[in-house]
Write a sequence for this structure.
């Protein structure tokens, strides 16, 4: 495959490092702040992939930090349309950085899957992660995305059998697998489960699609140490969202 996602992971592998995937809640603390933060994450922190978290009223998979950020963005009236407009601006400035829309499926259905896919493709989005869309129902969205040049990022739970992981990877060879590190919701953890590396190793040996570890990772140092030799990348989300809420995107210190 010769798309932005594949190139990103190939580049990280050639450089002997794990890919850094950065998540933000779009519209928190404001749309302008989100855009500035994305620019800084790419230019200063070396983010390889940006996940655009679309605020939703019932973010059941998210912890307190991201949930509060979503509610604040919703109070400002931020919508999927706003998130895609921001994606288009980011794409114009950062033509090589993969962009993933991180959303609950209801928002896509409300917009209309075909309308969403066309708008996302026009904005330069590469992939969609629909948090609450199970494998058995995934094709109803994937079949709409693919004709527009978009792919999906499957979520892999800590207790997902390897055979089901293999099923999840089929058809998204142009993407990556998001492997959840802990049971429960998003949020920084003091430590991660000791059995996690074995779980990552089992998945990595079973699929050819790149895998990234997410949920609970607080820093680049922790992410790098965790996935070294076990995964192809790591996700930082709550730690970035918390810092944006506390300091905003204009402080001179690194965002992550």
């Amino acid at each position: 495959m010769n798309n932005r996602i594949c190139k990103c992971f190939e580049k990280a592998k050639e450089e002997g490092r794990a890919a850094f995937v950065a998540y933000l809640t779009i519209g928190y603390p404001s749309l302008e702040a989100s855009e500035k933060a994305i620019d800084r994450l790419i230019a200063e922190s070396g983010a390889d992939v940006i996940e655009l978290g679309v605020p939703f009223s019932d973010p059941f998979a998210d912890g307190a930090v991201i949930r509060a950020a979503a509610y604040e963005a919703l109070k400002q009236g931020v919508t999927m349309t706003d998130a895609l407009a921001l994606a288009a601006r980011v794409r114009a400035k950062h033509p090589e950085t993969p962009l993933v829309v991180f959303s609950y499926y209801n928002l896509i259905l409300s917009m209309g899957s075909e309308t969403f896919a066309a708008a996302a493709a026009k904005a330069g989005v590469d992939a969609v992660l629909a948090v609450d869309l199970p494998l058995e129902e995934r094709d109803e969205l994937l079949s709409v995305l693919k004709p527009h040049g978009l792919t999906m990022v499957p979520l892999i739970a800590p207790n997902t059998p390897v055979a089901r992981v293999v099923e999840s990877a089929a058809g998204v060879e142009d993407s990556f697998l998001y492997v959840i590190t802990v049971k429960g919701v998003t949020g920084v953890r003091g430590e991660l489960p000791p059995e996690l590396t074995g779980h990552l190793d089992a998945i990595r040996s079973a699929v050819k699609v790149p895998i990234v570890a997410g949920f609970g990772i607080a820093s680049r140092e922790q992410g790098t140490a965790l996935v070294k030799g076990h995964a192809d990348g790591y996700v930082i989300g709550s730690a970035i969202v918390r810092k944006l809420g506390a300091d905003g995107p204009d402080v001179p210190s690194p965002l992550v």
Notes: The first strand starts at residue 19 and ends at 25. Residues 52 and 223 are 20 Å apart (CA to CA).
